[in-house]
Write a structure and sequence with these properties.
alpha/beta; Aspartate Aminotransferase, domain 2; 2 domains; seven-stranded mixed sheet; three-stranded antiparallel sheet; 13% strand
Length: 403
């Protein structure tokens, strides 16, 4: 090697590398737990109640025979960005039946999970520097997706606040600004388990219309409303509401990465353009499974799952001494007393770090409330992420830790 080559190599290796995007630094690697590494040497039973998933087998399992029956769809190939024509047609019919009104195929797009769909929707609706109002506590990845696209998430304390409807609308007035472009609603709610009634949704959508805001309605738990029928948001104002539904939640098919967005045709077209340059199309086998699930088979699965979910959710709530969930698969626990000054888990930050560490040391995983908005003294618990007997042993352990 010549001296010139050595000098050149030293010059290259000593030079500075370009910086990463500043947007990446605004979102964390894991919103649910920063303590998973502590389990690497743990030998006891693990209670994974930190992530929103189900212990039930899926409504439809992808198998070679199932794929072969769809030979004409060539499951190893791309589909159109918007999804297969047959799935779009089936999804439109499914939503029409749920909402009680005709849904056009032009209003529907299939996405690689609701996460990808909602992220693309943020990119389609908001410019950098504009604000997305989030009814909090909120699904964490919505705030992260907003930051990744250069927009600003605005957390509005809303659920578990004991507000009357007039107070709730006044709360929204406190946070709206001239940079607000959209309002995000999640019902049945992750993480609180609360369900907004038709009266509340009508009032909120009307409020958004009066301020010319888009409404993003995250309804991925629409089939899991335990005490009253879920109110679909899009029919309240089809010109401005975009709704999200998820095969992951409705049919236990999280790994298949398939979801539905429903909205105004111009919004769906904009989302299609975003997806073309990100994930392109949802996975073809996942779309085939969704095709099978969107029918009587999937509805029967969801009805049975809802019964089991409500049963375990009520039992968990009773043991923890909190109100039972109205929907979804979560409880959002205020542990302020356990982390207050003079108590065992008090920390200098005023948060739940020490309590979370004590839980992980015993194999119990919970999500920190700070991932869901300004809630440093809360924990989220998913009561369907493991079989009921495992969940209850984990809950009993939490009760012991909380004295």
């Amino acid at each position: 090697m010549s001296s010139h080559s050595i000098d050149l190599q030293e010059s290259i290796t000593s030079s500075l590398t370009p910086a990463l995007s500043s947007r990446v630094g605004r979102v964390g690697r894991s919103v649910y737990s920063q303590l998973l590494h502590k389990l690497s040497h743990y030998q006891g039973e693990v209670y994974p109640l930190h992530v929103g998933d189900t212990y039930l087998p899926p409504a439809v399992s992808i198998s070679e025979p199932m794929i072969m029956t769809h030979r004409a769809d060539q499951p190893h190939r791309y589909t159109p960005v918007r999804g297969t024509a047959s799935l779009i047609s089936t999804a439109s019919q499914w939503i029409s039946e749920r909402q009680g009104q005709l849904v056009s195929t032009d209003e529907v797009i299939i996405t690689g999970g609701a996460t990808a769909g909602l992220s693309a929707l943020v990119a389609a609706l908001l410019n950098p520097g504009e604000e997305l109002m989030l009814l909090a506590p909120y699904w964490p990845l919505m705030a992260g997706a907003t930051r990744m696209h250069g927009a600003i998430p605005i957390a509005i304390p809303f659920f578990q606040e004991g507000l009357s409807l007039p107070q709730a609308l006044a709360r929204l007035d406190e946070y709206v600004s001239d940079r607000s472009r959209a309002l995000y609603i999640n019902t049945p709610n992750n993480p609180t388990g609360e369900v907004l009634s038709a009266e509340w949704l009508k009032a909120i959508v009307k409020w958004a219309a009066q301020r010319n805001l888009w409404v993003i309605s995250d309804e991925v738990y629409d089939l899991f409303s335990y005490h009253e029928e879920h109110c679909y948001t899009r029919p309240l104002d089809p010109s401005r509401v975009i709704s999200a539904y998820s095969m992951s939640k409705s049919f236990g098919m999280a790994g298949y990465r398939c979801a539905i967005l429903q909205g105004p045709t111009e919004v769906i077209s904009a989302v299609e353009r975003v997806l073309t340059h990100t994930i392109y199309s949802a996975a073809t086998p996942g779309q085939l499974a969704a095709q099978e699930a969107l029918g009587e088979r999937g509805l029967n699965w969801a009805e049975e799952a809802a019964h089991k979910y409500q049963e375990i959710g009520d039992e968990v709530a009773m043991r923890l001494g909190v109100p039972p969930p109205q929907g979804s698969t979560f409880l959002f626990l205020n542990v302020t007393e356990a982390v207050s000054e003079g108590r065992r888990y008090h920390s200098e930050t005023g948060g739940v770090e020490r309590l979370l560490e004590a839980c992980v040391d015993r194999g119990l995983l919970l999500a920190p409330g700070s991932a869901f908005g300004p809630y440093p003294q809360h924990l989220r618990l998913c009561f369907t992420a493991a079989p009921p007997e495992v969940v209850l042993r984990g809950v009993d352990l939490l009760c012991t830790l909380l004295e």
